[in-house]
Amino acid sequence: MKNRILMTALLAALSFALTACDYNGGVEQGRAVAFERGKDVTLVLDTSKVRNKPLYNGKTAMYKLPDDPMDMGPEPACGGLLAVNPEKKTVSVYDPAAKSVKELPVEFTDVQKDIDARHPLVAGKTFPMVDKEKQTVTVYAPTLRSLVTFNPGAAIAMPAETWKFGDEIRVSFRDTARTQTTRFMNITKTNIFRR
Predict the structure, then answer these.
(1) Which are the contacts of 89, defined by CB distance < 8 A and separation ≥ 6?
(2) Contact 90, 104 (CB under 8 A)
(3) Residues 6+ apart with CB under 8 A from 22
């Protein structure tokens, strides 16, 4: 009985001690839109609270890379394409000049659904496929499991990187400014289930 009371008292003391700690850390996730090796990464943050339904509504953040290279996963591929929405007939892109997210109206000319990354139409191919003559862009949208082709109108003149999905990145940090990462994980290039 005495041991139970002692354990309860210790657990209560530990709980109070932990709640008194000033921990400003956290985790953020988003698409890489800019990266400088050995220095920093800029993400358009995923603000969605729904798993596997990302929302890139324009909030961006720059994070310094971890000091220890062992805390750094594979370097990210960057791109401006954030989301493809055939239902709304729009695509969301990051404009580096304006440092903002833009939703562009587009005309979808082909949407092939239920296509996974191993499908012959996707496997071994490099996206985006930009055809300036036909005024079309073809991309594989992994979150939609779809191969889509769309006409972005005059926006076809934007750089080819505009139509490329940047890697999905997760960073953790402990500093008050929330800028110095302690861990950097490239979700797109890391298979946590592989042994």
Answers:
(1) 105, 106, 107, 108
(2) yes
(3) none
Handedness of CA 151, 152, 155, 161 (dihedral sign): negative
Question: What's at 37, amino acid-wise?
Answer: R
Tell me the per-residue pLDDT of 76-127, one tens digit each, with 9 for 90 and over.
Answer: 999 999 999 999 999 999 998 888 999 999 999 999 999 998 999 999 999 9
Cα four-point dihedral sign 14, 20, 24, 27: positive
- Cα–Cα dist 189/8, whole Å: 45
Q: pTM (2 decimals)?
A: 0.80
Sketch out the chain's domains with CATH numbers: 24-78+166-195 (2.40.50.320), 81-160 (no CATH)
